[in-house]
Design goal:
D-Maltodextrin-Binding Protein, domain 2; Arc Repressor Mutant, subunit A; 3 domains; transcription; five-stranded mixed β-sheet; alpha/beta; WH-like_DNA-bd_sf; about 300 residues; about 25% strand; transcription regulation
Length: about 300
């Protein structure tokens, strides 16, 4: 059996903890995964994995072999890259991103990338929560955060600015807002991950924190955006989502001098050392794309 494929199967099973997950990820049958693991153990003359009906885990010898196998795979991938003169990217990339960013900005970027590399296929997983990438078989996650998950490698690809907005109809009924403190008397639209809704705003060197009343909350930005468009209240929205509605006049910016904190948009991936050339190229492409295509 092919030793390189067997090594990839072993590393994937070690990361996923599941023969079935590895079979799905590598597009092979579960019995074939078992055969590759058995072949690895025969070649190395050591038991690599503890197997039960519920769990797969590394043996002590498996832990030692895993590190060496990852190094060997990285070297093998580098040799393949050096010998490949076609320079044509291909294969499937599974990407996770938030609904709002995927809807507003990410899909146009991906379609452009795929037009440049027609043999690349991309599967998008829309999730607003951070979850284990290996378990969900995700190659790359696009996340907006102040600090990325320390267990992942993160490359900044853009800055996420936010703005306070409301519909013209809401402001006509409730009146304009000229100072941050006035927000406490308005209907606000908030993210439900926070039990207490305190909006932190900055104007130059000044900082203010305002307790707001959020009668409507949601865990996803586009839902709050549409609530604001329907006159439901004041919302903090990322500019990548809100700018086109501000330009059309269907939303109005509020307290333009006062800004919510900026966040960073990261391309996150697990620390596996044999990352495919297609994933590496996609990360570099996204960084350049959003530098040239500001929203």
């Amino acid at each position: 059996m092919d030793k390189l494929t067997a090594a990839k199967v072993f590393v994937d099973v070690a990361q996923s903890g599941s023969f079935t997950a590895t079979a799905d990820r590598l597009d092979m049958s579960r019995p074939m995964v078992t055969r590759y693991i058995e072949a690895m153990e025969k070649w190395l003359n050591v038991r690599l994995l503890h197997r039960t009906t519920r769990k797969v885990s590394l043996t002590t010898a498996g832990e030692r072999c895993l590190k060496e196998t990852e190094v060997w795979l990285e070297q093998a991938e580098n040799l393949v890259a050096l010998s490949d003169n076609s320079e044509e990217l291909s294969g499937m990339v599974r990407v996770a991103t938030s609904t709002s960013f995927g809807f507003a900005q990410f899909v146009p970027a991906l379609l452009n990338f795929m037009s440049i590399h027609p043999k690349v296929h991309i599967d998008i997983d829309l999730q607003d929560s951070v979850a284990d990438l290996t378990e969900r078989q995700i190659d790359l996650a696009i996340r907006i955060a102040s600090n990325p998950d320390p267990s992942l490698i993160g490359k900044p690809i853009a800055v996420c600015e936010s703005v306070l907005v409301a519909s013209p109809e809401y402001l006509a009924n409730r009146g304009d807002i000229s100072e941050p403190e006035e927000l406490s008397g308005h209907s606000c639209l908030g993210y439900k991950n926070f039990q207490q809704h305190v909006w932190h705003l900055t104007k130059g060197t000044q900082q203010k924190s305002v307790n707001v009343d959020c009668k409507l909350t949601a865990n996803e930005a586009t839902t709050l955006l549409h609530a604001a468009l329907l006159g439901g209240g004041v919302a903090i929205q990322p500019t990548y989502l809100a700018n086109k509605y501000i330009e059309s006049g269907t939303l109005q910016p509020i307290l333009s001098d006062w800004k919510p904190a900026n966040l960073t948009i990261y391309a996150l991936y697990s620390s596996r050392k044999y990352q495919s050339p297609t994933v590496r190229a996609l990360i570099d492409y996204l960084q350049e794309y959003f530098k040239d295509n500001c929203w």
